[in-house]
UniProtKB/TrEMBL annotation:
HAMAP family: GTPase_RsgA (MF_01820)
Keyword rRNA-binding attached: yes
Residues noted as binding GTP in the record, renumbered to the chain: N129, K130, M131, D132, G178, Q179, S180, G181, M182, G183, K184, S185, T186
Ranges where the EngC GTPase domain occurs: 90-234
Enzyme Commission no: 3.6.1.-
Entry superkingdom: Bacteria
Organism encoding this protein: Leeia speluncae
Cofactor, free-text remark: Binds 1 zinc ion per subunit.
Gene designation per UniProt: rsgA
Protein name in the entry: Small ribosomal subunit biogenesis GTPase RsgA
Lineage: Bacteria, Pseudomonadati, Pseudomonadota, Betaproteobacteria, Neisseriales
Annotated function: One of several proteins that assist in the late maturation steps of the functional core of the 30S ribosomal subunit. Helps release RbfA from mature subunits. May play a role in the assembly of ribosomal proteins into the subunit. Circularly permuted GTPase that catalyzes slow GTP hydrolysis, GTPase activity is stimulated by the 30S ribosomal subunit.
Binding site for Zn(2+): C260, C265, H267, C273
């Protein structure tokens, strides 16, 4: 054995194949490998495999296998659930939030998605869709405050032309998220013509059509660009984030953190709070501070 080889706690098994999870539906996965695509399950009760994960599989039949190991992840996004967060997409390199003027755009949703991106240190682009409508033009203008925080805001009209975002997708594994009705499906179908058909097939296989089971698909746009879509995904889960880490995920809070009178300040109503003072000076907006306080209140921090 050469001195250079790394010790491994995995039994040496020449049958293990490395692959990429290109689809997850409930507890079943499709894994793309150099030997083709395998339908896979996980070992035991392990279910935290996500679309975009790099994995090692053990072949069990010609086109079937078992996921034995998840390789280290560069990023991990969770799906919002009433009770808990469930992994949905791994190794994503940027987040695209789809919004529009119709139906009305909820700023809290934008803020939640941005927070999920900050946790993973991922760049965010807010796509303002339906720019052929005046309502969307107004939303685009109102989002200049997000642009000022360093988030990219891009106007599009998915129904007319998606080419303005092709350059944005290049070289990335992107994930799309958005409130219902903003045009996420229109966008995905324009970018990936086969997507509509594949989504339909899975809905039929799951015998629901209502997406009650979480599923996600990774599409190859070209050799270096991928898009992960999870139909119906409106928000990312934030349950797993430590309450103490939240303030640091607001870029405009960062210059003031550590400046409060109390080192354990929650920036709620404490005297000598530097975040509160920055808000009074107009350096932190009322809406972002209110959003931060809402997150803290949700966690029953007194
Ligand atoms: N005017 C206009 N309408 C659009 C545009 N893009 C999408 N729409 C319309 O907006 C509506 C919602 O679009 P979908 O693509 O179904 O929206 P979605 O975000 O996938 O919604 P869910 O399926 O509920 O998650 C449809 O009637 C689309 O035709 C656009 O660029 N301009
Ligand atoms: Zn404070």
């Amino acid at each position: 054995m050469s001195k250079k080889s790394k010790p491994s706690n995995r039994p040496a098994n020449t049958n293990l194949l490395e692959g990429l999870v290109i689809q997850s539906f409930g507890r079943r996965f499709r894994v793309e490998t150099a030997d083709g695509i395998f339908g896979c399950v996980t070992r035991g009760k392990k279910t935290d495999v996500a679309c975009g994960d790099k994995v090692l599989i053990q072949k069990t039949a010609l086109d079937e296998g078992v996921i034995e190991e998840i390789l280290p992840r560069a990023s991990l996004l969770y799906r919002q659930d009433e009770w808990r967060s469930k992994t949905i997409a791994a190794n994503v390199s940027q987040i695209l939030i789809v919004t529009a003027g119709v139906p009305s755009c909820h700023e809290a949703m934008l803020n939640r998605c941005i927070l999920a991106a900050e946790v993973n240190h991922l760049p965010v682009t807010i796509l303002v869709n339906k720019m052929d409508l005046s309502e969307s033009q107004a939303v685009f203008e109102s989002l200049s405050s997000f642009q000022a925080l360093g988030y990219n805001v891009v106007p599009i009209s998915a129904k007319q032309d998606v080419s303005p975002i092709l350059a944005l997708l290049k070289g990335h594994t992107s994930v799309l998220v958005g409130q219902s009705g903003m045009g996420k499906s229109t966008l995905v179908n324009a970018l990936i013509p086969e997507a509509a058909a594949r989504t339909g097939e899975i809905s039929e296989a799951l015998d629901s059509g209502k997406h009650t089971t979480t599923f996600a698909t990774l599409y190859h746009l070209d050799e270096e660009s991928q898009l992960i879509d999870s139909p119906g995904m409106q928000e990312f889960g934030l349950h797993h984030i430590d309450s103490r880490d939240i303030a640091g995920m607001f870029p405009e809070f960062r210059p003031y953190l550590g400046e409060c009178r109390f080192h354990n300040c929650w920036h709620k109503v404490e005297p000598g709070c530097a975040i509160e003072a920055a808000n009074a000076d107009g350096k932190i907006s009322d809406s972002r501070l209110a959003f931060y306080r809402l997150l803290i209140a949700e966690r029953n921090i007194k």
